[in-house]
Design brief:
Layout lengths: L6 H13 L6 E6 L2 H5 L2 H14 L6 E6 L11 E4 L3 E3 L6 H12 L8 E2 L6 E2 L6 H4 L17 H6 L4 H9 L2 H11 L11 H10 L8 E6 L8 H8 L1 H15 L3 E7 L3 H16 L15 E7 L8 H8 L23 E5 H13 L1 H5 L9 E8 L5 E6 L4 H8 L9 E6 L5 E4 L9 H6 L8 E6 L4 H15 L5 H18 L7 H15 L3 H5 L2 H9 L1 H9 L14 E3 L9 H5 L5 E2 L7 E2 L9 H5 L5 E3 H14 L1
Parallel strand pairs: 1-2, 7-8, 7-10, 8-9, 11-15
Antiparallel strand pairs: 1-3, 3-4, 5-6, 11-12, 13-14, 13-15, 16-19, 17-18
Helix pairs in contact: 7-11, 7-14, 8-9, 8-11, 10-12, 11-14, 18-19, 19-20, 20-22, 22-23
Length: 633
Amino acid sequence: MKKLKSVPELEKLRKKIQKERDPNQRYIAVCGGTGCRAYGSEALADTFKKEIKRKGLSKKVKLNMTGCHGFCERGPLVVIYPEKIFYQRVKLEDASEIIGQTIKNKVIVDRLLYVDPVSKQKIQTEKDIPFYRKQQRIIFGSNGLIDPNNIDDYLALGGYSALAKALFKMKPKEIIEEVKQSGLRGRGGAGFPTGTKWESCRAAPSYDGIRYVICNADEGDPGAFMDRSLLEGNPHSIIEGMIIGAFAIGAHTGYVYVRHEYPLAVKNLDIALDQARKYGLLGQNILGSRFDFDIRISRGGGAFICGESTALMASLEGKMGEPRPKHIHTVVHGLNGRPTNLNNVETWANVPLILNQGARWYSKIGTNGSKGTKIFSLVGKINNTGLVEVPMGITLREIVYDIGGGIPGGKKFKAVQTGGPSGGCIPEKILDLPVDFDRLTEVGSMMGSGGMIVMDEDTCMLDVAKYFTKFLTEESCGKCVPCREGLDRMLDILTDITEGKGKPGDVELLLELGDMIRETSLCALGRTAPNPVLSTINYFRDEYNAHIKDKKCPAKVCKDLITFSVVKENCNGCTRCARGCPQGAITGGKKKVHRINQELCIKCGLCRDACKFEAIKLGSELHLSLMEKGDRD
């Protein structure tokens, strides 16, 4: 690698790279995201390499291990260019057939194509698959085209051209104004206007002139993996955004604070930083501009609270990751007491796009108050699990049904939680809600970093509220009393209710505690922590009443509120239930009616699954069965 000393040298290198690449060359892109790697995509890529070499195609066929393609449910994913043929759930033994048929003879391997569950038609290209059709992948789309360990791939797609424009054709204030005009809001959860934040940081006084920029990659929400996939698949987009931001703000040092549990993201980012330095795109005198800036990686210890800005900065300083009061904002008094600008991974990745395409172009995407696109991790009881990038303003129904493919097994949709563990649960009656920062907040949820968990009819909303409250209780730093004690008390009440110990007044007490925690907690974690409880009470009050008054769990999830019994008329003494019981709680010989010892029963339901004669019923089902029998008699 030769260090680039000017923009003309950068453009000369870019043209050289593009000239050496034939757009019509056969090219195999194997998804190298963490999800597909778990399915064995690394071994699949190695098999492709061997097959290409064995068949003498090394000079004609290019193979890339790219970042995540988004459709995680269907991994390992393989895309064949230039036709963009999309193969899913590809196995090691399929590699030879793909090389022999598709690469050599241009024949489609039908069994590897995606089959539309509605039309039953086989779909050949990615863009025609319903999962991708309604997406607008302006940020995430390059993931499937770039080898994250090869900076030339990023340069070939126009990488670092926005940086060149910022350094030589724009003044810092002009860059900030462009970002302000774009309407970009922080994608880490708070949704604060990015340009305004940059402007405040640049204007803040610094006694020694030192300022910092930080990339928050401490993605701690359960089920969220957007930032990880961007760092793994396209690290240069984040690096370029950070350099532009640093130049605009006047910072010369940057940090990427990344979760320790993201080893592939750290590895690919480290390689990308080293390559950027060798090309002169990072470090001293970037592209001959006399602007110096470098980025360091800091690995967090996995504390959820360190996603909060002041706690993150305390951790960077080597202190305990605890938040502090924001009487003075971090743009004025942040890391080491200096003005500090912190944005998350996705926010930084938007910056090069805005400078290249223009604020006017970007601001046309989305809604009045929320511009651009948003990447969500779509998980839970949904057919198409994965990462989706959609324009702001798309409805939840479109995401769940048109992109997500609806609920598995034809079951009914019940709720979707947005915003991570501090988000709210949104019911079916407002599923047509447009997704943007303000509308989600209005209904008791929030955008958060982009987690989206779908739940079906078999989900107990109290169990969900208890799960997230337990998570937040464990992740609370304990510094302030409202969060530390308030959440713990909420968890105690929820636990009692789900164990059949609920009593009148519990719901009112939860509402009172929730309001108190919201109003008096030190940081955003505490102020949003009651959302799961408050939103489930608001939209699913009947389930709370059933648990407390009737001592029943409508979804049949809370074990202490369910009882398995044997219907004598249906039991023929086959012993299948007894043989499958792990506790030995079922007694009765062959051809004799069996009994369940309630003291030994752990409510696992294996007996019910084993019985072929519908002789095992839940208490509520048995009651209904007896009533129906009485009606017939």
